[in-house]
């Protein structure tokens, strides 16, 4: 006659070895340290910033067929408070015909990113934009490399 008892000698009557083990050996989690919380926040910020960069790459300069991120028009992206993302950007020239409306276009693109509640875009002129701020891809696209 074969023994159909599971290991440990208990009959197969719905006995749950895993539940018993977990009850007798609770998993103790170490409290999160401020450093761990900061690391998690940093990773979250990096992910959010990358999503914002991706959104900005969908916005093109009206005069140059390159997105504004690779064109080097974005000077800073501050995601330390996702409820209000702050962006500093410039334009290729101070007399750009879209200077009044373009920050609003950028705000709309960034507001479409999940987790972003509000966006403030500040147009800055210092330092002035130069083609040195362009990405290698942008330079290649324009035949400047």
Strand arrangement within the widest β-sheet reads 1-2-3
Number of strands: 3
Q: Counting H and I runs of at least 4 residues, what is the number of helices?
A: 4
Q: Which CATH architecture is right?
A: 2-Layer Sandwich
How does the SSE layout of this entry go?
Elements (H helix, E strand, L loop, with lengths): L16 H8 L9 H23 L17 E5 L5 E6 L12 H10 L6 E6 L12 H6 L4
Parallel strand pairs: 2-3
Antiparallel strand pairs: 1-2
Description:
- Helices cover 32% and strands 12% of the residues.
- With 145 residues, it is an alpha+beta fold.
- The protein has a single domain (32-141), classed as GMP Synthetase, Chain A, domain 3 (2-Layer Sandwich).
- Strand 2 (84-89), helix 3 and strand 3 (118-123) form a beta-alpha-beta unit.
- The termini are far apart.
Short structural summary:
With about 140 residues, the protein is an alpha+beta fold.
What are the salient characteristics of this protein?
3-stranded mixed β-sheet, 4 helices, 32% helix, 145 residues, alpha+beta, GMP Synthetase, Chain A, domain 3, elongated
